[in-house]
Structure formats: C-alpha cells, structure tokens
Amino acid sequence: MSRSAHQDDFFQTTASLEESNRKAAKSRNTEGRPIRLQSKILAVAADPTRNGFVYVAESAGSVRRVALETGESDAVFKGPTAPVTSVCFSPDGKLLFAGCWDKTVWSWDIATRQPKTRYQGHTDFVKSVTTARIGGQDVLISGGSDAEIIVFDIASGSRLHVLKGHARGIQDLAIDPLSLESDNSKLVLFSAGSNREIRRFNVPPHTGNLSDSDALLVHETSVYKLFFDADGDLWTASADKTAKCLVRDNDWNPDLVLQHPDFVRDVVVQEPWVVTVCRDEEVRVWNKATGELHHTFSGHFEEVTGLLLVGTTVVSVSIDATIRQWSLKPDDLQRAKEESQKKKSGDEEAPRQESMLTEEEEHCAELATEEDRNMATLSSMQIDDQGGGPGQGPDLVNRLHESRSPYVRGHMHNPVAWQLWDSQSIDLAKRHNRLIFLSIGYSACHWCHVMEKESFMSPEVAAILNDSFIPIKVDREERPDVDDVYMNYVQATTGSGGWPLNVFLTPDLEPVFGGTYWPGPNSSSLPPRGSVDGPIGFVDILEKLRDVWQTQQQRCLESAKEITRQLKEFAEEGTHSHHEPREADEDLEIELLEEAYQHFASRYDSTNGGFSRAPKFPTPTNLSFLLRLALYPSAVSDIVGEAECAQATAMATDTLIKMARGGIRDHIGHGFARYSVTADWGLPHFEKMLYDQAQLLNVYVDAFRVTAEPELLGAIYDLVTYLTNPPLQSAAGGFYSSEDADSLPTPNDTEKREGAFYVWTLKEFKQVLGQRDAGVCARHWGVLPDGNVAPENDPHDEFMNQNVLSIKVTPSKLAKEFGLSEEEVVKIIKSGRQKLREYRDKTRVRPDLDDKIIVAWNGLAIGALAKCSVLLDEFDNARAVQCREAAVKAVNFIKNNLFEKGTGQLWRIYRDGSRGETPGFADDYAYLTEGLLHMYEATFDDSYLQFAQQLQEYLNSHFIAEGPDSSSAGYYTTPSNMTPGVPGPLLRLKGGTEAATPSVNGVIARNLLRLSALLDEERYRKLARETCNAFSVEIMQHPFLFVGLLDVVVGLDLGVRTVAGVLSTADITSSAIPLKDGVVSKPDEPVSARDLLIKKVREEAGPATSTSAVAVSLVDIRPSSVENIASNLSIWLKGTNPLFKDLKPGQPAKNFLLICETGSCRTVDFVMAKPCTGGAIGAFLSVVFYLDIRCALHWIAVDLVRDIYGVVMTVLEELSMDLALGVTRVT
C-alpha cells in the first residue's frame, strides 16, 4: 500500500486520504433532510404511541426520541455506558427496551424515562430484541453474539426459555405475524445468524417444550436482517451482497434475488417497492414485481445501519449520525429520479479545466484554504523568530551520564544528544519551540538495543534529532507513569504497542505521533530510500515530522490537543460508575467468575497450554485466577460448576508444566524468560525479569499445593535458587531488576546477539559432555545437528545451528533407546547439566544485569518467597529458612534505604549506593504491602503487619481518587505530590486490568480486604468495595481482564473467614494441638507450642489462604508475653484488633483457635494429649513417597523404614539437588 506523497499527510495512504476527502465533501449534502445527531446510530424504531416520532439506538449508550418533522430530540433514555444495538417496545407501548453491548437488555418507563428492569443472561453483546404477547403473557425476546436467544417474562424479569441451535452469533429476530393471528398460544420466531443460518422456533408461553426446524440455508454467509411483508413472505439481507424474498407457500425457497455491490444491511417492503441499504452508503428502491432497480437515494456518507417505514416514507439511519427521510410517493419518487439523472448528466458534460499546477500542488491546494496557508506561514515565521528551524537553537549535549538508570546510561555515548525527563529539558523545548522526541525502553529489551544500534548510533539520525528536536530518553521501569500515558496513546492510534516506545510530543507534552520500533538507516528490512512500499524508515519519519512542525504547526497543536482530550476520556476508566452514588444492591456479584472462566476455557490451547497463539506470555495472574476457583467456598463452584473448577485447575497446571518443560525456562541455569515467541513455549524472548520470577514462584506454589504435581515442585526449587542467589539477589539484600536478552557470544566478540548465553550447538554438547553423554542429553533437551529454531523465527540468522533447550524425551524412554538403566540416564542428565553450566559460566559473557532495585518488584519477590517458605516448611526447613531470610533482608533494605519513617513515603529506585529521586508509585506501595502481608502470614510477626498498614494509609492519603459523597473511586498510579523539578505525567491514570504485572487497584483492594479482616477494620472493607465498584462497568463488560478485582469480589460477597491462633500457654504437654495423622518428628528436636499452633492455624485455613476468602493470624495472650513487649510478636495486633484486646488466658490456660465467618465467631479447643513427634519430616516423607511413585526416580531406598531418620535426611538432601537441577520425569 502506497503512502501519500504530501508532507502534511505522510502517515496516511493516498487511498485513505481520498476516502476521507470524499466523505468530508459528501457530509455537507442535505439530501433526505438530514437530522444530525452527535453519536453513531445503530438502530431505529417507530414510536408506538405518537405518529412522526422515532427512537434511535446510539453508540454512546443512550436511546433518543426524535421528531421527524422538526428534528428535535424530546427525550433521551440513559443508563448504559456501552453502545445500544437495538430497540423495541412492550406490547402495551409503555416500556422501552434496548439491547446493549454490556450483554444485558435495558428497559425504561417511557412516561417517566426512569430505568426499570435489566434483563441478564447473555454472555456477549445483545444484538436484537423484540416483544410479543403469548397466551396473555408479555414476553421479551433477545438474541446475542453468544449464539443464544433468551425469552424473558417482562413482568418478573425471569428467563422462560433459552433457545439454542445457532453455531455463531444472532444478528436479528423476527416474529412470524401469522403465528400471532392464530390462537395466540404459541408464536413462531425466526432468527438470523452469523453463520448463514435462518432458524425457526416454536415458542410457548411460560415454560414448555421448545422445537426448532431445520435451518434455512439460502445465503452464503451472515444474514443481517429479516422482514415479513404484507403477504407473509420473509425478506432477508445478507453479507453475501444479496437481498432475497423467501416465499412461505414455496417452503421458504427464494423467488427473487436482488444483487448489490456490497454487504446488504437491511431490507423493508412497501408495496410496490422493496427498499434496501448496503454498506456502500446508498438507499436503493427496487420494483418488487420485476426485481429491477428503480432509484438510488444518495445522502449518507457512512454505512447505513437501519431502515424504518413510516407511512409512505422510508427512514434511514447511519453511523454518520444522521437520520434521513425518503418519500416513496409515486410523484416524489419520480421527481427524485429525474433530478438524480439530470445531476448525473451535468456532471458528465462539465469539461475539466486545464491546470497549471502539478498533481501534488493541485492536491495541496484542494486541502488547504487561504486561512490555512496564512496560518502555516505565520507558524513558520514564529519558528524562525524563536530559533526553531533546522540548524538553529541550542547546541545540545548528551546528559545521560547524570542518570542512575543502567538503560538510560547505556545511551550516554550515542551521537544523539539525549536529554533527561526533567524540567530543564521541557523548558528547552518550550523556549526553542521544538517537538520533543521521547524514546522509552528498558535494559532487557531486545528491540530497544536493535533500534539503538540501527538508529541512535547513526550520525544521520543524530544530526536530525539534535538540530530539530529535543530528544529525551526514559527508562520505563523508573517512570512507568510516563510510559503508561504514551503507551495508551500508541495502542489507541496504531492498535498495538511495545518497546521501544517512541512518541513525538509538543512542548506541552501532548502527543502528535508515535509508534514502537522503526527501522534505522542500517536496517536490512528497510526498503530503498524513496520507495513507497515496505516499512517506513525512522529517518523518513524524522524528516516528515520536522517539516510538518515547521509548516503545519497549528494543525499539529490542534490535533495534539484533541488527542489529549480523548486520552483524558480514556483515562476515566474506573470512574464510569461514579457519576452518581451507587446503591448497595448494585455491587458486583460472583456470577462474573463464570463468565471470566468461560473466556479462558474458550481460548485454551489444549496442545501446548496457555491461552493464546504466538507470542505466548505466562500471565501468572490469569493462572492464579483459574487455580483459585477450586479453593473458594462451595458457593463459587455452585455457580461456576464443579467440573469447570476442576478444568480450570487442570488448564493452569498443564500450562505451568508445559512452561517448565519448554524453552522459556533456563534448563541449565535457573529462572524463566519473559515470554515465548512460539506457541509451544519453545523459543523465548530471552530477557529475565524479576517481576516474572516472583509471580511465577507465587503461582507454582499455589499449583503444587492444589495438585502435588512433582514437576511443579521442581520449578519452585529452580525459581527459589534463581531469586536467592547472585546475580539477582544483591549483597545489600534487595533484588535486582533483570538480565538482558542479548549478550556477547564469547569474550572476544564485539557484537551482542540475542540469546547467545543460552543456546547450544550439538558440537558444543559433544565437546563438553563426550559422545555418549552428549547423545543422551541432546535427545533429552531436543538438540539437533542443524539447530531447532525454525527459519521463520530467525529473520536475522542469529540462531543458525543453535538449539534452545527444552525437555523433549523422558528418562525412561532414553533408557530404552540407549540401552541404559533409568538411574544411569538420570545421573547423566544431572551431571551433564552441571558440566554445561560450568562451561557456560567459564566461556560465555553473562547478559548485562540491570542492577536497579525497584520497590514494587521487590515487593512481589518478598511476597512470593514468604509464601513459598510456608510451603517448604512442611518438608524442607532449610530451604524455607533460606526463602524467609532472603525476604527479610529485602524488607529491611527497603525500610532502611527507600522508606521515610517520618512521612511514610517510599522512593522507587535504589542503585549504585543511593536512592533515586523518583517517588514511589501506587504499585510500589501496593506490591510491597502485599509482600508484607505474606511475610506476616509466614512469620506471624506483626511488625510486618504494622508496616503494611502504614503504607496503606499513605496510599489512602496521596493516591486515592475521590468519588461522589466522599466515597473513593479507586487509586491513581501517581501520587498527588510529585517531586519538584521533575515533570509529572500528562495524565493521572487509574487502571484496573491485569498486565505483565498485577492490576494495581486489584492488589490494593485485596490488601484492603485482608487488612480489614486482620485488624477488624470496617473502613478498609468499605474502601475495598468502593475500589471494586469504581471499575464495575468495565468489569461487567470484560470480567476476564479484571481477575484480581474478581478475587476481592468473592471476599466481599461471601465474607472473609478468619482463623486466628490464640497462644495462652507454652505448655505443650497439657494443651497440645494434635496434627494430622502420620505426622512425626525426630525425638531430639523440640517443638514449641507456638509452632504447633501455627501448624494448626494453617491446617484449618488450608490452601484457601491464597484467596481473598481466608485470612490467618496469631496472637499471644500469655501474661509473660504481654508484659514483655520486646519478645511478643503480636503485641501491636492485640492492641489494634478489637477482637483481641480483651482476650485473656482461661483456667487452666489452653491454646485455641478463634474462627470468625458469616458475622459470628467461635472458639475451637483441643483435647489434651501427648504431642506427636517430629512433624515436618513425616510430612516430607509423604511427599517423597508420592514423588517416588509419580516420578520413578532413584531418590530413595526401598528399605527406607529400616533407618528412617538417617535415610530421610539423605533423601532430603538429594531431592533438593534433583529439583534444583530440574531432573524430573516427564509423565
């Protein structure tokens, strides 16, 4: 597709410009006496009680009543915030109904205009509605994109029938008028679908048997409209470019076909005419008897969406937001036909005047008025006066050495004179009237490095940027607020996003044009200069933006302001529900979980796991949602379905196992890459991000708790090893951000290559492992002589003969193939992995480390490690302690270096010995608070709980968005008080959807609910509810995008069950809490009463602690502990939670559980008994036996019982090594 050659329209194709100009010219016509509205019109219906009035369905989410004579709107029916697709009326004409994209049918009292019942049941857009009276009962019938037709009782709102049969969505419904003329006890409904079918249903009143006939297949594709004429014959409009008449007396076979040049959208019949509308904007009048085209009314300048007969007038509506009227009276029709022919003849006879202009000059002259040209001249003069032209203005110097960001500092030797995102740079743009070129990326981004190499190291690019723009480089991990605003812009304008993110801004920071990666002067994918085909080069873009700013500056400014206005509207996400106070019964309900589940189930890749094609991302938040479904109280499974909840667990588990086997996992080292380029998880994008490791550890822990699947435990050990060792864990205690995708293949190389550190050749395998072991390991990890990366996934030939390792063959199969025992195969794989790792570390250059310590991502890691420690406590105490200690160090690091105790403020970044100047964002507070809550549950040390509450209070003071009546409307991502001298974002956003990291508002709402339960603080629960309700409109439309908030909805709807352990005595002989059967411990290892109580708390709570439905705590009320504040880890909690303040030991003192749920609390005492011995090892034994049975690995001896304690310790050590090395049998 060629681009326009005109500089002011460079980024549009010539065809698109011509189409825009045609529509602009046609929009001024007055044919059909247009009534111009403000919103696209999707449907029209006649007023049943007042002649000359129509109701139109608007994409803005309202229904409008319009007088055809005057064009005035005398009533607007509001409520929906999504487009309204169809309208109809109750049989008595007193109620108005409208189908909506929000999957419901709205209704209003026409007299009062007040909303009435909302009819729910569809799982996708409602596309058509109609009503009827059957056997004295008024019914509403709706058809949706979910392929279902629902019959409602209008009075009660209850569903009478659900009609199924269509394979795809319903487009239109029509009631056979002859069925209404009979005994009125049953109607016949015709439905049109997107899969070419027209179906008939016999619909009885109330409940009863339903039947449908065989589908009528008279069209090649979608049928859009159905219309019964006065003879009872059925007319159809289809995307196969025809309208047809199906004759009742001929078994509904067509006897007349009207051919059109494009999709036919609607058809109506008014003897002797048939009127149709087509996607080509025209209204056609046909002779019904002959099928000949009689006349074409031309007036609409966008697609026509509906027709309506009003007497002898046909009314048409369009997405051009106009209502037009065309008379079908014989005289009027003849006059219109003659005028059209006369105009056509005049156009043909008018000679074209010769022009002295070139084609380009002539086109420019048509586009620009004299005022435009004067404004362009004035703008150019202003640029010259202010020094904004090429070669003028400041002598820029690269300032990136002032930054702390490794990514930003990596560009400080570019010839581009990069500036920082600060007031100095913005003032520079304003003073010299230049566009800002903003480039955003991050250290581990492969394409960021590609663009630097191709463009930012180019003298040609540097000369243009330095002379004509103010180039600014930003690290998205430091300023996610800036990145979010302009990523929204690029996604909205281009349909996609990613990094590097490149945006041209006015000096007021308003966007003009943007995109992601553009080929630089040295790119192999760039076409020859001057070519109009292929991708646009970065130099072309720079030159055109420079020229447009000089010659069309006013247009740029106006366009940028309009874009910014639309972005502000987009930023209203989370406020749609807050224009008016909400009623209590409008809260979100857990039924939304079923719809979210269905979304994932419909997109599940049963072959490879995951929920998309390539590229494929792990999306841990979605996997956590699926795992939680089976952990919630039974009220959830009653709605979603027990089988569906089990399937959700299976989908999540299978995906996690496929990932653990796939190339996305580093099988020689540790950790997971960010995503897979291929659908089978085989070829990763090799960067490793801290936030991915943390979230994956979290979800693998949950999955193992639910399934006890051994391969999941292997991944857990792998992730723990990666997180708690260099290079990711800093010596100071915090966790670094990421490892790069690109690296030098050898120390002697000068060019980095993607994945160089991770890929292998078969030759290297043989060199490192020897012939026999190389053969076994190559088969196990899928290593091929010519490499295992398909050519289509290697456009730059970086992976020729290279292999990405993933588990392909099980040890048992390898044993048979190579004539070895299975034990020997396992030893070869373990030994081979160790040798390959040593070789890799010795001969290759490790990818660059982004050594920023980011509070938010550290919060995720803290929470995951704390949660993992609780799991490992059951069978691997040493590794559990390792997890907890790493988390404790990170908490202390943040508290000592990035937290101001006096104000409660966090600072986001620490690097190179000091903190940065970027204040904490909402994700820093939210993720760290969540991590602290997990730390509390892992240690029951209430200092973490106290710290969490302090951070939440800071969020409430500086990030909360105000709603009506002093309520909250969610949380902004940025604080109200940005750092002086540092520009804030163009907009304050407030997102609720899940992304690469969890929804910030979802995490905040969950934190609030947990704090409410742990502290018995109703204020937090209220804030949690208001945060969820702030996004209610969006959640109801697309619940699968808000799975974090859905978890909170469950806790709010069903209540949070709290399990508190109350420690009254240290005497475990007189008031011990028995553990599970079979749990024993070593006799020489003392068990404290506190430890036993903690185990019982966790046992009582179960794995549901991973959801918002359960919270656990522990309070020490022993007199000695109450008096000794320093040693009591729950003194603050006891004084804060009203339930605990008055608790005192009984006589005799006994430890017990305090369980609160559904508004009441109860205590659970325990029978005094001699404590069982040595629990953790016994629990571990069961796991080991289970793993041995499942994996058939040579981990334990057959005669384990003979010397139980000595063997168990050996097993523990060997299992830890096996799982850390990833040696598990693929079943």
Task: Explain what you see.
The chain is an alpha+beta fold. 37% of the residues lie in helices and 19% in strands. The chain has a four-stranded antiparallel beta sheet. Strand 7 and strand 8 form a beta hairpin. The longest helix has 22 residues. It is globular, with a radius of gyration of 35 Å. It comes from Byssochlamys spectabilis (strain No. 5 / NBRC 109023). Keywords: Repeat, WD repeat. This is Spermatogenesis-associated protein 20-like TRX domain-containing protein. It holds the Pfam family WD40.
Tell me the layout of helices and strands:
Elements: H1 14-26, E1 35-36, E2 41-46, E3 53-58, E4 63-67, E5 73-77, E6 84-89, E7 95-100, E8 104-109, E9 119-120, E10 126-134, E11 137-144, E12 149-153, E13 159-163, E14 170-175, H2 177-180, E15 187-193, E16 198-203, E17 211-212, E18 223-228, E19 234-238, E20 242-247, E21 253-259, E22 264-270, E23 273-278, E24 283-287, E25 293-297, E26 304-310, E27 313-318, E28 322-327, H3 330-349, H4 359-367, H5 370-385, H6 406-409, H7 423-431, E29 435-441, H8 446-456, H9 459-468, E30 469-475, H10 480-494, E31 501-505, E32 511-515, H11 538-551, H12 553-570, H13 592-602, H14 620-628, H15 634-640, H16 642-661, E33 675-676, E34 684-685, E35 688-689, H17 690-707, H18 710-723, E36 738-739, E37 742-743, E38 753-754, H19 762-769, H20 771-781, H21 811-818, H22 822-843, E39 849-850, E40 853-854, H23 855-872, H24 877-897, E41 909-911, E42 914-915, H25 922-939, H26 942-958, E43 960-962, E44 968-971, H27 1000-1015, H28 1018-1030, H29 1032-1037, H30 1043-1054, E45 1057-1063, H31 1089-1101, E46 1110-1116, H32 1119-1123, H33 1131-1136, H34 1138-1141, ...
